[in-house]
Structure formats: C-alpha cells, structure tokens
Amino acid sequence: MNDTNAYFLLAAILAPILAGVILLFGARFTDTTRRAIAAFGFGWPLVIGIMLYGLFVPGLAGEYNFELRLPTGLESIGIYLHLGLNGISMPLFILAGTVGFAAGLYSMYSDAERPHLYLALLLFMLGGLMGTFASIDVFFFYFFHELALIPTFIMIGIWGGVGRRGAAIEMTIYLTLGALLSLLGLIALYVESGAASFSLPELRDYLASQPLSETVQNNIYALLLFGFGILVSLFPFHSWAPKGYAVAPTGAAMLHAGVLKKFGLYGLLQIAGPLLPAGAAHWFPWLIWLALGNILIIGLVTLAQRDLKMMLGYSSVMHMGYAFLGLACFSVVGAGGALLMMVAHGFSVALLFMLSTCIYHRSQTFDMSAMGSLATKTPVLAAFFVAGIMASIGLPGFGNFWGEFTIFVALAESELTRWLVAPAAIGIIISAIYGLRAVGNIFYGQPSEAFAERLESAPIEDLKGFEKLPACILVGALLLTGIFPRIFSDDANRELAEIYPAAEHHFPASAGVSEPAATTIYQEDAH
Amino acid sequence: MNELLAEFLRGYTATNEWSAIMPEIMLALLALGLLVSEMFLPKAQHHLIPRIAIWGQVLIGVYAFSCIGGCLTSSGSFFSGMILQTDVSQMMRPFFLLSSILVCYLGRIYLSQQSLAKTEFYHLVLIISAAMMLLVQSSNFVMLFVALETVTVAFYVLVGYCRTSPFSLEGGLKYLILGSLSSAILLFGIVLLYGVAGNPQLPGASPDSLNFQSLQAFIALNQFTGGNLLVNVGAILVVAGICFKIGAVPFQIWVPDVYQGAPTPVTAFLAVASKAAGFIVLLVLVQGPFLALNELLVPVLSFIAAATILFGNIAAVTQRNLKRLMGLSGIAHAGYLLIGVVAVMRGVEWAVYAVIFYLVTYLLASFAVFGVMAITAKADDANQQLDDYANYSRKQPFLSGVLTLGLGSLAGIPPLGGFIAKLFLFVAAYQAGLYGLIAIAILGVVISIYYYFGWIRECYFGVPTSEIVEDTCGQSTVADRTLLGALVAGTVLVGVLPAVLPIIP
Asked: Is A146 in Cβ contact with B415 (below 8 Å)?
C-alpha cells in the first residue's frame, strides 16, 4: 500500500517543519542562509504538489492516490498516520502549496523583527496545512489543522498591528472552542459508528452498511457544523475573523484566510456531509439561513467599512456564505461549486491581503477614504489590486466566477432552494459595490489633503520584485482556474459523484422533484 | 525471641517477598545514607550530597524500570495481602522516581538561593517517593493509611521548609491542620468499614476486614442484599479523604495557599506526585473494595469532577500570582482526571491507562513550567507575579520557549503531549457515555486557554522596551537547559509519536 510517491507526500509535510525547526535556532544566520533555508521549506511542498498532480491516477473513485499508513502509537483507538490524496483534497493541497509559496516569498523579504522566528512559525503553519489536506485519517486531519492554527495566534500576538493583544486572545479562545467542538464531533463519530477506526474510508464503508439513527446523526452533525462553522466564520460566529485579519501580519493573514479557513468547509464537504446525510438534511434550513446571514448581513457590514483590511476581512467572511450555500444544496453540483469557490477564494483573498500591506507601505494608512490617486504613482500595484478585486467579485475569467456560478446552478436545480438565487445574487451586487468603491477610493479619485502632500513629497515606488512575483503567481493561479477549471473539477466531480449519490431525496420537501442530471450539467459548466 | 527470629528467617528464605519491594528499600537506605554522609563528609564536600541523591535515584530508577513487565519481580500479593503489585503499580514506580529526581534537581537550584538546611530536604523527598510507591501498591487499609501518613507528614515539613518566609510557614500550618483533618476523615471512614465488615452477624464478614479483597467480597454481598448505610458512609468518607489529597472540590481550599507558600520544588512535587498517588489510590479503591458501590459513587464523583473543573478554571482566570495560578489550574487538571476515574467506574477498563498517560504528560509539562519558575524566582519565591514575565522572551529566549511548550501542553494544544492525553480521556469518557462531563471539560479547556495564553502573551507580546533590566537572577546553566530541553522534547515527542510512551495497551 505504501508506494514510493506516498513518501513524497510525507516529505511535503515534513520539509517545511524541518526548515522551521532549523530556523528556530537560527538567530545568528545571515540573511542569505536564512532565505535559502526558508525558500526550500516554502518551495518544496509546491513542487511536490505539482509533481503529485502530474502523477495523479484518475478513475479511482472512492480510493486514494499515494496512500501511506504509518503507526504512531495511537493504534489502540484506531488512529494511524494515514495520508493520501483524492480528487477533492488535491485542489486544496495545491492551493496550500501555492499560497504558502507566495506568502513565504513575500515574508522572506519583509522587514519583520526577529525574522528567523517569523519564518519558522510560517513554515510550521505551512507544514500543518499540507498535512491537513493530505490526511485521510480524520484525527490527523484535525491534528494538522491545530498545528497550523497555533502559529497564527503567536504571529498575531508578536507581529500584529494595533490591538493585537486583544485580537490574539479573542481569536485563540474562539477558535479553540470551535476546534474542540469539532474534535468532540469526530470522537462522537468514531465511538457511535463502532468502526473502531478514525480512517475516513473505513468510517464511510462502515456507515454505509449500518447507518446511524437519525437522532445520533443530527446531534453529531450539529457538533461538526457549529465546530467547523466557528472555524470558517459562519454568520453569528464570525466576529473573530475581521479583527484577527485586520491585525495579523501579512504572511499569517494570507495563509489563514486563504487556506486554513477552508479546513472547516473541507471537513463539512468530505466528512460531515457524506457520513451524516440525515444530519445534513436536518440542519439544512439552519445552514441556509446562517449562510444568507453571511452573505447579506455581513455584506452590508462590509459596505460600511472604511479600513481596507477590515473590509477585506469582512468580505472574506461574506464569501464563505456562498460556499456554505453550495454545501447546503447537498448535491454534486453544489459541493463541486463550493470546492471551486474555496480554491479560487483562497487565491484571491491571499492576493488581496498581500496587496493591502503593499498599499500600506506606500500610503502609511489603511483608511480608504483618506487615500486617492495612488495609481498615478503605482500603476502595477493598481493593476494587480484591480485583478484581485475583480476576481473576488466573481468576474468571468477568474476562478471565483465558476465557483459562484456553479453554486447558483446548484441552488436553481432544486425547487426547495430556487428562491435563494435572488438574495445570493444581491450579495454579488454588494460585493461589486464595495470592491469597486475601494479601487476607486484608493487608486483614483481625489486624495485627502494630507495624502496629496504625501504623494507629492514621499518617495513612493511601484511594486518591487519580491512583491511582484507572489502576486503574479496568485493572479496566474486565479486565471488558470478561471479559464480552465477542469484541471481541478474533473477529478473532484468523479469523487463527489461517488460520495453524494442520489442526494436529492434527503430533502424532506423535495421527495417528488425529479432529479436533474447533475453530473452532465456540472461538466458543461466547467468548460 | 530466638524463635521469632528463626521464624522470620525461615519466612524470609522460603519466599522472596522482600525483593518485591526492593526499590522502596533501596530508596529508604539511600535516604538514610544521605544523612550519614552529611555527618561524615567534610564540609567542603557537602555539595556532593545532592549528586548522590540524584544519581542514586537514577540507578534505582533503572532497576525499577526493569521491573515493569515483571521480569525481576513477579506481580502478585505479598506480606499476607498487605501489598498487591499490578502492572499499574509497577508503572508508577518510575513515575514517582522521575518526579523525585526532578524535585531534587529543582531543590538544588532553590536551596542555592536560600540559607537553609540542605540534606534534610533530599532525605524527605526520597522518603516521600518510597512511601508513595508503597501507597499505590497497598492492598490493605492499614498499609494504605501508614503509607499515606508517611507521605503527608513529610510534606508538612517540606511545605514549611523555608522558615524565614511567612508564606511558607502559613502554608505549612494550613497544610498541617487541613491535612490532619482529612486524615481524620479518612481514618473515620476506614474504622466504620472495619467495624461493619468485621461484624460476624452480617453475611460475608471476615476477620481480616481491612483487606481490600475481603472487603470487596463483603460489600458486594451486602449490596446484593440491599446495601448497608454504614458501608456507604464509610466509603464516602474514605473517598473524601482521598479527594483532599488530589485537591478536588469541595476539599480544594488549601491548594492555592499551600502551593504559593511552599518552595517551588515542593509545589511541583505536590502538584504532580502527590496528585498522581491520590489518583492511583482512588482507582485501586473504585476497582477493588468499592466496586459494588458504583451506583452510589458514580454520581458523587461525577458531580465532584464537574465542580472541580469549573472551580479550578474560573478561579484561575483572575489570578496574577503564578504559583496560585498553577495551583488552581492543577485543581482543574484533577477534575479532568476524575472524568477518567468515572469512566473506569462506568466500565471502560482502559481508562486507567488514559489516566496514567495523562499523569505522565502532566509531569513532563508541569516540571518544565515549575523548572522555569524555580530558575526565575528571586530569593522570595512565593511572590511570583505575572508582571515579572513581561518581555521574558527577550531576556531568556530559551526559557520562555520551554515555558510556552509546557503551558501549551497543559492547555492541551496539539502537537504536544497534553493534547493526546486529553484525547484519550475524552474518547474514554465518550465511550462511557459521560456527555455532560465532556461538555464541562471542553468549557474548562476553553477557559484555561485564557490564563495559559495570558502567561505566554506576557512573555512574548510585551511592548518592546529599550531598557531591559539586567538582573543576575534567572540565569540558567547548561545542565538546567539540558534538563528542561529534555522535558519539553519529551512533551513534543509524546505528542507527535505517542508510541514512545507504551502505556495504553
């Protein structure tokens, strides 16, 4: 079972951690040594990700590529270090590698104090992220997530902006609560299923043959939904996110908002939904109302933001609502749309957080109403920022478009959810308003007097090389998923068709609705 | 007299009973040897005494470690049922030895800053360690009480060891009074059980009614025929006496004051070894003599566990004195461990090992934290405030790293050992169906993040100031760093690869 390529998967997790440990003791390294070690740690996972993508064998629906199963001492409760990739985790694995590389490149040249510690923590985070999406074992899925989460808190605490002490502790407590709830849900799943294993395929097979009673499913699903929901900033549990992102240092914000936050959605997509279909059906009304809260209420809150980073934080909370809606559809199309949305949003939000720091370095303020006509000095920065905002709005040509579009199709597919298309579309308009207004305020329009003076006197340069390269990588990834989403969607589709079979009948009210040919529609979208 | 001696010798040669408790005998001899060596060694050589104590214990530890699995001493009952050796008691020997070695090491750091008698400290630590080993092996209430009192009396001395500090004296006095009270409660419970179980009019009465096995048979028989009020009262009183030792609500009142007043190494010893001994005794009791009383004890202990978790965590939130903070958070940990005990009582057998696993990770993390505290403490070590650690990571990057990992493990953050330990406890509790307790434990963990991270935050997130006060106190030697580094390396290793701790079968 353990083929050679599987050890590359393990290496993708261990290499950043190893580089991080070396840097931890590298306070006296020269800049060059430090950057060389960090570049290895940040680049290696991406290289392996692309290599494994090339080696990926399709047609193993329900199976995993590159399976690796190692004992760690927890066998007595059915836990193995069980790694592997399938069509659903592959896109996210690549997302983690790409955003990690971009964030790493940017951070290597940032002027953080104690850079060795900063880079080491970022590398630990990246190692955890790679592990999260490569885990088949649901325990290690959780374990690696926590491994990535802890450095975030520390980085916010040490290198964060104004108000970091409060934001760090609020985020820590909130996210620990979410993580513990989901851990409890996973333990409940393990004990109640009786499968005596934390391995996802084994749990799935076991539950397929003897499903849990509806009450048990509802209770476990509630734990997972609200546990994961807190981690993804589901509507009433979102307050940590904008504050945390507003003060987080750039590298941490890019990795957390871009990749780590997708953990909860991935958990709902890959674990909670397929294993607990009755629970998903029971909590379906709750989920759509809360997701609408994300889209509309948070959308309006985003409109009111004047601080650039707060706006980006709120808009990332808002866009999570679409992913939740896609999951709530509980169909192949909906889940596939949510997956595309997750990947594309990861690229775009990481790009925007990075560029917002670039803007800050030039303007010395995050207050958008104070800025203006920055584009005269920094045309390249403006171009990248506009691209990021357009992607985040969902302009065709960027990956986000396919995510949102597919989710709308999934909503329209079922009579039960058709009405949701209208409020969800209003969300798109809202995001266009605040996105374009931000572009207008920052790069065009009239600057405030103080800012105009600054534009005159201060030496403001355009993007430097170390800022351009990560931005190019992220925009390139967005365009690639926008123009040719099949690179991810084909494998994912095959996998999702396997685990979301005949999903429609789970909805109590839609028993009579004839099921449209979900798979074909989805593939047409993907072109 | 001669006949008695001959009888003894015949008994001695016929069995190998004495070799069964060889580690304890060797420890006691080492303890006496320390006193002798103080008399005979020249003054200039007195610095050797702690080394003799530590290395002697390491050798005994190697021996005790080889006893696990019963390759040297067979497990079983010895001294006409006074002692029962199980694989649990064999596992606890290295545990107690490890903690007493670490206490001796921390004691060396502590005593170097004080002008106090030195040799007696190590002597008492060794005696306590030996008595704890006997305590967890005891299978008779007489043995249990004698071993427990040996531990407690020695602790009275150690808690009040720093005669010049009013805090230490206050702590010693409080521990003496409340400790005696709890001993009295325990003894009263034992006497009630003895009286009832020795009553020839009752079915199953036995002349040897203090023996755990005959008591178990008696209680089971009586429960079968409707129960007995005196048995219930006696059992509750015994459990209350044990709860005092582990610092569970409502017997936790002594913990903050005593933890604050006691010298830091003694605080660590109380927090880790004394608590561990209490839990193992509790496990022995609920699986042995009180097995038939589950119906009575499960609700009682569940309630105590819930109250303990909530009290410990909530009281620790506002605490700024670090030794009191460790005491209160230790109460919370006792609550988590009680969940494991209740799970055992509900029929999840392997929860015993989950408790031991938790204790080992607690030992590693606690001693890392207490080690940093002992090194950082100034001469007046009862008064360690959170503010003393402002910007600590700039002054002592290594020690604050140790502190962070230790506190993280106590808070149960992956990938540290404390997380795996909590995972085992939660899985066991879920299997036992203790949903309410798990919910409370999770609430407790979330609250605990606040104060543990508050401490870490103080170390790292302080405002960088240009004037860093250079103080001579708190410098660590290479040996200190090696030891603390080994402790946190163990914590991380257990978290990443739990197989290194082969406790869970």
From this structure: yes
